Every structure is written in C-alpha cells, then in structure tokens.
Predict the structure.
Amino acid sequence: LEIDQAKIPQATAKRLPLYYRFLEGLQASGKHRVSSTELSEAVKVDSATIRRDFSYFGALGKKGYGYNVNYLLSFFRKTLDQDELTKVALVGVGNLGTAFLNYNFSKNNSTRIEMAFDVDETKVNQEISDVPIYHLDDFTEKIPADIEVVILTVPSQAAQGIADQLVEAGIKGILNFTPARLTVPDDVRVHHIDLSVELQSLIYFLKHYPLK
Ligand code: ATP
C-alpha cells in the first residue's frame, strides 16, 4: 500500500508518535489487536478521531476485531522514520540541557542527541552521558550534514543570535525551549516549548474549566 504523505493532515501526523508509543508497548506485551476504544482511553484522543486518522493510511478497523497492531506499527515505523536513527544536536548545556543529555531519549532508540555546544569553557571539551560538548564557535565545523535539528536550551537573550547562526549553518528545525520568540526564514521550522507558559495555561484551565 502506497501512502501519499502529503495527504495526511498535520493534526493527524502530530498524533502518530503518540499512537506509535502506545502500540509498541502493546506489541511488547504480546497483543496483536487493539480496538479504537482501547486506544482512545490510552492516548486520550476520542475514538472517532482515531478512526479518521487511521483511515488516511488505509487501516480500516474490523467490527469486533479492531486494528492489527503489527500492521499499524509497520506503517508508523515507515512514516515516522523509526527504522532510521535521527541524530540531533543540543545547544546550551545548562540545567535543562544537561537533563536532556542525561535522558537522551534512552527509551526511544530512534532519536539521539549526538553532540552538544556551549560557550562556557568549563563545559567545552567535556562529555555528559557520552555526548561530546564543543564550543559553539566550532558549530559549522563540527556539525555533520545529517544533523538538521537542534534543541535550544540557552538563556533567552542569546536565543535569536544563536538561531541565526544555526540557520546559517544549515539547520532546518529548532526545538526552542527558551521563552524567546524566534524569527527564522520560511524554510526553517521552529517548535516552541515554553514550560512556564504551558504551566500557567494548565493552572488557568484547572481554575476556570474544572473537570466535572
Ligand atoms: P537552564 O536550566 O535554562 O539551562 P542555567 O541556569 O543552567 O539554565 P542558563 O544561564 O540558562 O543556565 O544557560 C544555559 C546554558 O547556555 C549554559 O550552559 C550557558 O553556558 C549556555 N550559554 C549561555 N550563552 C550562550 C551562548 N551565547 N551560546 C551558547 N551557549 C550559551
């Protein structure tokens, strides 16, 4: 079955890693099929949405059977490039950056932080969890052609200048953990994760939209 990636809506694509992680767990525990209701409860996406998402890639659940776990996984693996190791870099080895290096997606062997950068001479040329730390001045020289994503955990005042430098070096995706809003060219994607904004929004929702 050939699937046209371009036809999968972005909202659906964003949920695929969620489905993937849950299905992998199911497969590991020896389960071969799953109902959309079961999936729905586990990943907290309503079952109508799940059915619609799955219909985009031709997985039509059978009544009374559900979905074939192996089929779904093999599809997701292809779509999410899970067969290939995706290497990323990290810039800013402070508290947050260090936590990411120590974690290093160990439970998910398809993504790995390959190298890190900082300007602090006490950090440069050290290793954390086997990840080498280089000076940011050497970014262009050190970064291999197959790394196009950077996790950014620097102070916010430094973020835009560093982003410009990363873009200049050919980086195409930035996962921005700083509160700074970054301006980048159209062909560069920035995903912004601002922990304090997310926390405030959770607190606001708890207060104003209590569950039940
Ligand atoms: P955090 O928990 O946010 O990492 P922190 O207090 O440990 O905070 P910050 O001052 O936020 O440290 O700095 C994060 C890291 O970014 C530090 O390791 C710092 O040396 C590094 N850093 C600061 N300025 C730059 C820069 N211009 N380029 C690269 N790294 C920088």
Remarks:
- The pocket of adenosine-5'-triphosphate is lined by residues 91-97, 118-120, 123, 136, 153-155, 158, 162 (CB under 6 Å).
- The first strand starts at residue 33 and ends at 34.
